[in-house]
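R.M. (postdoc): so does anyone remember the format we settled on? I'll just put the structure tokens first.
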């Protein structure tokens, strides 16, 4: 594992899930001081800027002397990203234990701020594999969802976000 990946994982935990663990606080939209973060992590600003610029998931956002994770939070508060028009079809990967609930109830954010959707089936399958067992992929009628009032946000090049997606707009993909 590279140093960049290792630092990105540490930043993810601090900025998305458990800031108190390293003694930092996030404001209501997930921002904290870059100086506070680098001191808490024992790294340099250049290290953090490298992760922001070159990290594979484009997960972080710098604004002057502030930094935040753009999406994936399980902490209180809400990162507000502008609404965006999604592609006609998106995908969601999950594990086999939750697939039937997704089919029946739709996609809900659960412990996160948003439902995470992928622009391609391969990425969704990879995400679903993290949940154990053979991944299950759902095709999302994003155009239909948007037409029915679901608001989409662009998390990064590979990730789209929504508050929820009703079950009638999901199709379980066959392996």
């Amino acid at each position: 594992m590279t140093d960049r990946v290792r630092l990105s994982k540490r930043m993810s935990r601090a900025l998305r899930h458990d800031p108190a663990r390293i003694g930092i606080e996030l404001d209501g939209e997930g921002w904290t001081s870059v100086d506070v973060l680098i001191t808490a992590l024992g790294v340099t600003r250049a290290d953090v800027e490298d992760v922001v610029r070159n990290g594979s998931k484009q997960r972080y956002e710098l604004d002057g002397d502030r930094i935040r994770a753009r999406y994936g939070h399980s902490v209180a508060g809400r990162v507000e990203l502008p609404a965006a028009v999604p592609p006609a079809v998106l995908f969601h990967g999950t594990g086999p234990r939750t697939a039937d609930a997704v089919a029946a109830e739709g996609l809900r954010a659960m412990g996160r701020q948003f439902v995470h959707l992928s622009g391609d089936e391969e990425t969704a399958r990879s995400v679903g594999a993290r949940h154990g067992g053979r991944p299950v992929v759902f095709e999302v009628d994003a155009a239909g969802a948007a037409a029915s009032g679901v608001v989409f946000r662009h998390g990064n090049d590979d990730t789209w976000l929504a508050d929820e997606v009703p079950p009638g707009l999901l199709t379980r993909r066959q392996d």
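R.M.: ...and that's the designed sequence above, right after the tokens. Also worth knowing: The chain has a mean pLDDT of 87. Residues 89-172 form a domain with the ADP-ribosylation fold fold (CATH 3.20.170.30).
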